[in-house]
Amino acid sequence: GSNLGPTSQVLADRVAAEAARYGVPANEIPVELLTASSSGLDPHISPDAAYFQAIRVAEARGLDLEAVRELIETHTEAPVAGILGEPRVNVLLLNLALDDLSQG
Predict the structure, then answer these.
(1) What is the pLDDT along the chain (104 residues), one digit of tens a residue?
(2) Alpha-carbon torsion 30, 34, 35, 38, what sign?
(3) Residue 29 CB-half CA count within 13 A
(4) Which of 4, 31, 38, 94 could form a disulfide with 11 if both were Cys (CB 3.0 to 4.6 A apart)?
(5) Cα separation of 22 and 41, whole Å?
(6) What Å distances lie between residue 41 and 20, 44, 86, 98, CA to CA?
């Protein structure tokens, strides 16, 4: 993480550059894909971030988009005890499942 605050011009410039790289307005992109927030080591992303990348992942792996979306859905974990935290997708486990699908 950068510890840059919401009023930081450096952060605003970084977000704008990332949005331009995606070719989509920044307000249409899950915020975690635009910032370097958190540790960067957590294996989880939000379901929104996973679904946002589904088309690119399907194309890169030569997979059916609907199959990728189904794997995202089945790999979305609920909050702990139903109340702690947010829904999340373990990227490592999802990538392993995508590998299995690619080889199948």
Answers:
(1) 567 888 999 989 989 999 999 999 999 999 888 886 555 557 899 999 999 999 999 999 999 999 999 999 999 999 988 889 899 999 999 999 999 998 87
(2) positive
(3) 18
(4) 4
(5) 22
(6) 24, 9, 17, 21
Tell me how far CA of residue 58 lies from CA of 14, 55, 68, in angstroms: 27, 5, 6
Helix (H, G, I), strand (E, B) or coil at 47: helix
DSSP secondary structure string, 2-27? ----TT-HHHHHHHHHHHHHHTS-GG
Alpha helices, DSSP H only, in 1-104?
9-22, 47-52, 54-61, 65-74, 91-103
CB 54, CB 81: distance < 8 Å: no
Structure tokens at 33: 């894909």
